[in-house]
Amino acid sequence: MILTQQLDRMDRAATASDLYEFSAKLYPICRSITGNGLRQTLRMIQERIPLELQEVPSGTQVLDWTVPKEWNISDAYVKDSSGRRIVDFQKCNLHVVNYSIPVHSRMPLSELKKHIHTLPEHPDWIPYRTSYYKEDWGFCLSYAHAVSLPEGEYEVCIDSSLGDGHLSYGELLLPGTSNHEILISCHVCHPSLANDNLSGITVATRLAQLVAKTTHRYSYRFLFIPGTIGAITWLSRNPESSKRIRHGLVLTCIGDRNSFHYKKSRQENAEIDRAVAHVLKHSDPSAKLLPFSPYGYDERQFCSPGFNLPVGCLMRSVWGTFPEYHTSMDNLHLLDPESLIGSLKVCASIFDLLESNRRFKNLAPFGEPQLGRRGLYPSMGGISPEKELHARLWTLNLSDGNHSLLDIAERSGLPFDIVCESAELLFQKGLLATAD
Amino acid sequence: MILTQQLDRMDRAATASDLYEFSAKLYPICRSITGNGLRQTLRMIQERIPLELQEVPSGTQVLDWTVPKEWNISDAYVKDSSGRRIVDFQKCNLHVVNYSIPVHSRMPLSELKKHIHTLPEHPDWIPYRTSYYKEDWGFCLSYAHAVSLPEGEYEVCIDSSLGDGHLSYGELLLPGTSNHEILISCHVCHPSLANDNLSGITVATRLAQLVAKTTHRYSYRFLFIPGTIGAITWLSRNPESSKRIRHGLVLTCIGDRNSFHYKKSRQENAEIDRAVAHVLKHSDPSAKLLPFSPYGYDERQFCSPGFNLPVGCLMRSVWGTFPEYHTSMDNLHLLDPESLIGSLKVCASIFDLLESNRRFKNLAPFGEPQLGRRGLYPSMGGISPEKELHARLWTLNLSDGNHSLLDIAERSGLPFDIVCESAELLFQKGLLATAD
Amino acid sequence: MILTQQLDRMDRAATASDLYEFSAKLYPICRSITGNGLRQTLRMIQERIPLELQEVPSGTQVLDWTVPKEWNISDAYVKDSSGRRIVDFQKCNLHVVNYSIPVHSRMPLSELKKHIHTLPEHPDWIPYRTSYYKEDWGFCLSYAHAVSLPEGEYEVCIDSSLGDGHLSYGELLLPGTSNHEILISCHVCHPSLANDNLSGITVATRLAQLVAKTTHRYSYRFLFIPGTIGAITWLSRNPESSKRIRHGLVLTCIGDRNSFHYKKSRQENAEIDRAVAHVLKHSDPSAKLLPFSPYGYDERQFCSPGFNLPVGCLMRSVWGTFPEYHTSMDNLHLLDPESLIGSLKVCASIFDLLESNRRFKNLAPFGEPQLGRRGLYPSMGGISPEKELHARLWTLNLSDGNHSLLDIAERSGLPFDIVCESAELLFQKGLLATAD
């Protein structure tokens, strides 16, 4: 239980606050699936972990897709007839449809309105819209603002560029004693949206810091990639690495105050699915497991039938279902420092479980070994001597080389860490041998 | 979805009315497991579909059974001492125990009563009784009628014959591009009983007309046979054909106003069982699935262990459980034209599903293919663009050559036809290849 | 259904009373895991069934354990300063911690109290305590008694011996036509405790008497053994016999008024588990099935991973969960003659089921055989003609050589004995052949 122990040793309040502050620091940047906002974000992550930055040229063929042109933007506004900026990109980058082509012209309200997006059901919120693969431009406004615009001529300017360049992403491999990999992936392409997905970026970054300080069996691969095209690009360029992935998690929307939701991998009963289910069952009674579906975030790429990797998606609120999703209300107020550290801890528990989930073989399998003469009857002064005794008996009983410690935890109903401690103790006492 | 489309193109009211009228036309005939009433019925079906009539001689050994003597009846009555017909076969053929041997004699009430069957729990209803394999005679009366008979001498006459002859049944094979068969079987041995089984005969006849007008993959075999002995006889004479049966339905009691009941085949999870379950789930929320049992109608023969064919039984009310079952109240009033056409439509949907239930292989299985550049993002003006998109993504995700479209529909929760349309579209766009 | 039939032929009240009386006769003896109390108990069982007594020397290595020294006790007491026996082993053998080493000395109350065990939550009950593997001595008193002891000097005496000797156990093999064995095991090491486990001893003894009077397929092995060390010893000395065990039951706590509880074997779906579940379902609607766990009675040894035998544990109240467990209140009042005979009957039904649970092959598997001409339509005068007919049809339908009669009973929902009678009748009529 290396990662959780490390986490427990840290100052909880300070860590929670640091997670929140990192999200806050990244919040103002206008990110997209390419461009300098994305690059700046990756460099800020690099200040914390030794991320490798990858740059893939526009036009590169990646699986069934092509890396798009690079998009950059320096300013955008709508001015009324008096020359006042009534819509200002500098105040909120959501105002511009992400990937808008450059435009600078004057037009009447009727023409402008064709390019305005609103959310009538939430009249004070600004929606988030993109147009990656169709060249177009537009502005996003609150509905109340849009309907208040008087007739007249407006000056419209989007000072953007769309041209040959690169798609950027960040990658960090922390090698373990085995080359079997655990993948942690999060998307870094959203502009000023907090839960989706600064929460994922923040938790993944901190997780990498934690893992880096430990000795571990698995190799850990962290990906900070633009959604969809980033996952496609990485998979296209790393066919060998993808085969080494044994377990994976996509992290998104894990900073709000909701309880956990875990969407299973396509395999639905992979070790990662069972590990997350076990950890959540013992840590968050309101957590819910969701079946796999081929829409969502990048798990859909990792779980495409040609790869079929055991990668699930860990969330608190589920993308697309909470009202603030993809609006200006997904801001820093939606994030909760306690939720961020709680998510970090759940991830740590999941990876601790996977690290420790071995198979053993009982070396005295005929009858019950005499625990008493080995000092293996838990002393009555322990925290829960009955649980400890049960864990030892279950571990001995099921350690026939076929059952993993997670199998034993599931069948016995005991928490994994108690089963794991039992196995370590029984191993030390010479009653168990490793079997995988 | 060829059959349902055809059906949808027809005038619904006219079709419903035609189904009802055909039942009404067949209603008065005194059918049995052999004889001229049965033959006349088959000929009336033959006026609509090119049924082959089979005649199997009495005494023929069929599996563990022997084809019985042929039974015919021209008249029957009981006259009171004044010579008045107080029981008259001409008015209701249920009055005579089916397969009664000839009798003509006078007897006191006490003697007559030994041969009278009633239903005390429904004092105004006439029961339906048979004595196929034990030579006997009898009359069926309403209980009220029977208890009102005064003492006295009665003249009893059953002008029937029981002798060497034939067992008749009708068979129609509509060849498809494959010689794998779908079996539709219904029993034609009941006299004036409407739901059991003129409803089955009527729907099966119309279904054959529909199928005949289409191109289809499967060959369809329609059997119009006397219950039990007819199925035994057909199976005995057609060992090779029976091996070609891939799916089958026995149709009975499908004309009343109840919701559907489907009794699964002995295999319980055969493709036909899953297909019916899927169609009913999406068309009749009150429908119920029943486990297989070795009693019922001819599915018990098709599902005997030596054959173990995937044949289930589709009903509305379940034989033996509705009060009118096997009584004079199972008459034309119990039939509902809307129910008949509803049953026809459900059968059409089931066969459409089986026809279309293929396996495909995603030709771009690594990552998600880019739908946008192929025009595969459903336009927002569609009926349910989100469902369509989900269907496409699910079909791509699960088309690994192992999952059938029904597997995909079941796992995604989407209706089969939407999945099927997606597969066709993706196939046209070159993203899928057939895999079976 | 040989055993239950025999039981039904016996005088129920007399049998119940005899079971109770045998328990009562054994009750006063001070048993332990070795010693003369155990030996005397085995000899009293020997008066009823031809038990073989085994004696295994102290120090013998048995699997991971060593046979302990033999313990005997003739007297024990605590006298107050006036010389009055205020604690007297002769009145209740629970007063002495089982396996106490000899002691004879005077001591103040403060010193004595270190050796006194009580149950504060039940102030009038005397607890049962042991110290088999740690040399120690002690007295068990009611809490009320213990707190009432005045300050002063006490004479303490335990006239016991602990030295080289033997571990005793009893074994009876009743050979059947096959050498496949059914194991019935009960522990005989508890002093004056009634439900745990004189009830098990009493029922097992009577069961052996019943089995001895019948012809049977399985060989039955009855073990009367000290808990844990007895099972370990038997398994250690009988590796070949243990391999012949096909089904097994540990009997304990089956004399009280509670409904049945059955703890499944480690295999959880072994034939014994299904047989017990079936018998209880049809005889005790309140019965509960419990999952396997590696703590409890000797099933934990039989179900250790090296043996993994299909041995479950049949109880009424579950050890460790009823308040009287391991206290002076587990006395003869807790036993109910009706419960004892009820437990005997359930065991008889379970073994009858296992004896009869064969596989058959339908010799007329194509279509349904004609029951009528073989007189196999149940006469309407029978007890439940419909059930009988259904049982015959189910047995014919599923007798394909793969389904056992228990499989058929489970799938049809019919009681095993009706299915079994059907199979016998169909076998006599030449419609079934044995298939295992």
Highlighted features:
homotrimer; 436 residues; Aminopeptidase; Arc Repressor Mutant, subunit A; 3 domains; 8-stranded mixed β-sheet; 14 helices
Number of domains of chain A: 3
Strand order of the largest sheet of chain A: 1-10-12-11-13-16-14-15
Computed Rg of chain A: 25 Å
Based on Cα principal axes, name the global outline of chain A: elongated
Q: Strand portion of chain A, in percent?
A: 15-25%
- Approximately how much helix is present in the residues of chain A? 25-40%
CATH architectural category of the largest domain in chain A = 3-Layer(aba) Sandwich
Which fold does the CATH topology of the largest domain in chain A refer to? Answer: Aminopeptidase
Tell me which protein chains meet in the greatest interface and how many residues each side has: A-B, 22 and 20 residues
Under CATH, the homologous superfamily of the largest domain in chain A reads Zn peptidases
Rounded average pLDDT of chain A: 96
Count of extended strands of chain A:
19
Q: What is the oligomer described by this structure?
A: homotrimer
Low-confidence stretches of chain A: none
